[in-house]
Amino acid sequence: MQAVVKPIAAPGLVLADVPQPVPGDGELLLRVAAASVCGTDVHIYDWNPWAAARVHPPRVIGHEICGEVVGRGPGADLPDGRRVAVESHIVCRQCNSCARGDFHVCPNTRILGVDVDGGFTSLVVVPQLNVFPISDDTTSEVAAALEPVGNAVHACSYGELAGRAVVVFGCGPIGCAAIAIARAEGAAAVIAVDRNRYRLELAERMGATSLVMADNNVEPSVRAAARGADIDCALEMSGAPSAVIAATRLVRPGGWISLLGIGDEPATLDLSNDVVMTGISLHGVVGRRLPQTWEATMEYVRSGAVDVSALITHHYAMSEIVAAIELIKSGHCGKVSLHPG
Fold first, then answer.
1. Which of 43, 89, 104, 154 does the annotation list as catalytic?
2. Domain assignment present for 290
3. Is 138 part of the annotated catalytic residue set?
4. Residues 96-131: pLDDT tens digits?
5. Which residue numbers delimit the Enoyl reductase (ER) domain (predicted)?
6. Active-site residue 89, yes or no?
7. Boundaries of domain holding 320
8. Cα separation, 143 vs 1, whole angstroms
9. Is residue 67 located within the same domain as residue 170?
10. How many alpha carbons fall within 13 Å on the CB side of residue 197?
């Protein structure tokens, strides 16, 4: 079968023939119905320092997927034909973090398409514990995007949003999903901040009440957009050091910040003045809480409170992966969906 593969330790990806995987104990064989492209896939394509240190080629990439069960190994019992969304973080379930139920911070996590072969192909093997059955009225494209939407759900879970003023830094697909979730939770105002006009327009479609172009005057611009209201929380999705610093200075005393974006360089904060003396809470966000985040994410979709399909702006065949990645790098898209072929 054909798959999108990182063949060697160098920039680029290829479409290559790979053996059909065989499910082991507790594993399912899925026929991939749809996938979507993540920034992680772009890093692997570019072969940035993170990818070079983490990924060991050859590797089938792709971790945002929806599939149909077509086989299983010993101990797995989900029937053929069941459509599922996939959690990409495979945890050990043996360490202290897992014993506490903190699976999202398991130090032995293996990521689909990074540490083990992923889903940019026609057949993929995943642990049954990593799949979540979806309803017939959830499209495969939406189901594949539930994994990154879950990041946004997790980021939004650390404090009260109803009636609050929220600022979201970074309006890629996860940031835009966070905007929709904040509005679904009853946020009074959601201020979207990005340097990309296309993404700000997508943020507005997802429910942002004000748009701020990221520049050297972002703090006064955000305060102006708040129209005198306190900013209760910030959802930082960009990883840009300037955005992290701005978040700590904009959020009211006693407010909270979720930090999900990963930057290319460290941010230097004035912890004494901007965090300790203001009593704000910082929350590092990694992955999704299992299973709580998935349950909440699927309820947003089931109820219609969040329209995930509005995040998906482009569709490509997997054989067109390079074009899909170049589009993402241009910044003129939301979530990019892939289908086998």
1. 43
2. no
3. no
4. 999 999 999 999 999 999 999 999 999 999 999 999
5. 9-338
6. no
7. 2-133+307-339
8. 23
9. no
10. 0
